Amino acid sequence: MTCDLTLRDVRSVARIVNLAHRFNCRITHVQAAVGELETSARFAFEGPPVALTRLRAQIDRIIAYESVA
Amino acid sequence: MTGAQAVVAALEREGVDTIFGYPGGAIMPLYDALFEHPVRHVLVRHEAAAAFAASGYARTSGRVGVCCATSGPGATNLVTGLLDAMMDSVPVVAITGQVRCELMGTDGFQEADVCAITQPVTKRNMLVARANDIAETIAAAFALARDGRPGPVLVDIPNDVLKAALTDVTEPRVQAPFARGGAGPRVSDAAVRDAVARIRCARRPVAIVGGGVRAGSVDLYRMFTAMLGLPHAATINALGAAAPGDPSYLGMLGMHGLKAANKAVQRADLILALGMRFDDRVTGKPDRFAREATVIHADIDATEFNKIISADVALHGDLRDTLRALIDELARGHVPRFDDWAAETRLLGGALPSDRVDGGVLSATDVLDRVFAALPGDAIVTTDVGQHQMWAAQRARPANPRKYATSAGLGAMGFGFPAAIGAQFAHPSVPVFAVVGDGGFQMCLPELATLRRYDVPVKIVLIDNQNLGMVRQWQELFFSQRYSATNLADNPDFVAIARAYGIEAFALESPDGADDVIARFVASHGPALLHCACHPTENVWPMIPAGMTVDDLMEARA
After folding, report:
1. Fold of B189-346
2. Cα–Cα 20 to 30 A to B3, which of B122, B195, B389, B417?
């Protein structure tokens, strides 16, 4: 599973890495470019389909919670 | 205006009237700003109690609960309470002091990377680096805690930022979608039509309501179930959602839920899961849960869909809007009635099984039956975690879900008593009862001092079975009766302890005259403890062992 994300809080990169570890997914790629207001990040994960689905849902929630100023 | 004064002003703007906390070095400027300020600070005796009290305040009022602590150990002591609020979707804002900016990262005295530590246990946390940012950050924290799926947010403020003078005093601007009144997810019309079509085709539907109903949906939930004559069950976080006396209400479901509720769910051909998340204590083994049922799942958090149980229809939105949409769509056509099926489900249950012993020994279930019968109708009940929590949940009939607070998802011992303190501050004129066990009560005994200091009239019902009873029960049933570290036969004299703190205490040691003692306890003025010396080996029945189904339900020792 590959995720191209725009993050408002660069700390979310670490949070996503930790979540992937917790969900027993293997992180095969992490790349992040930090801008003035946003961070562009690309992740690639491998793991059981159920775990990947849960991980993607959690990532979406992190992004939603980030949208607060 | 200093940063600390800006914090207090921001709290006032949010309508905060009470903060639960404990002072320390890094947060001293905030305590100075609170000194003789109308925003009331309640001094607890351990920061964990501050977080639980804020949760009790929020759970029973619907308002955001606020707690504060100093840096390092003060902040880390909040962590369990924050996770509890995260698991049960409780809006809490925690404000923590942090060491001065120049010391951060130096292993300074009482330094902890609180933002890193609390990232998994909060919706979000913020470190404030400039005093000018305080107002906007706190406004955002409250908006995020309250809106969407509620939860905890932490704001960490370095000591020098609290002391600094603001150079820009402007009204905060919080950006959509979480700004107050901002739009959340709107349930899809097509999904509502699909759900209603499936309801009309169902023969054995059952609704399961969860904690999502607490956020202002109780009236519509009652209207919806009554409209259909729908049998329905509640998770522990939704006790009180059913209308009093509703014959279609089957009670709590799950591991220690009522037999009728669990059996009806297992026989259902349609499950309406409303604001609940299919916790493992509810489903048991997921692939054997309600195998014949189509599932309609309504939740404000899309993360919950297909997490444990696959949804055939996902209704993503605020539960209130979803219920309104379902009711309106039903009303446009045929409204089915499920009275016959509801009557059938009522026959699936029977009396609650129990281990009560005769011969003058006090039984915990007997005590709780008597206590709940004696409670005023408007009482708020909090519970701690363990056997008493399950016995209480099986028996309690709160008037609405805000009348009942328990640490459901996290199961955090030490929650019940401080949560009752928080509830009492939110509702000064309502009787508040904390039902606790001897294990959990000893995790927060010093809060008796909080009761005394503020003369908080919380009534504590202490079910003392001289054991960590739930663990003991599992050791008896599943660990060959090897009772490792669960015996508390050397418990202290709780009545003497309460009295040492200046709290009135009642001792209940036998069924004889129990009702009279309970009546005097309930009618007492001010804080009070009812110590119930109960039989040590009474178990909670029924029980569906972990990872099993209702087919494996146990009603007594083998």
Report:
1. Rossmann fold (3.40.50)
2. B122
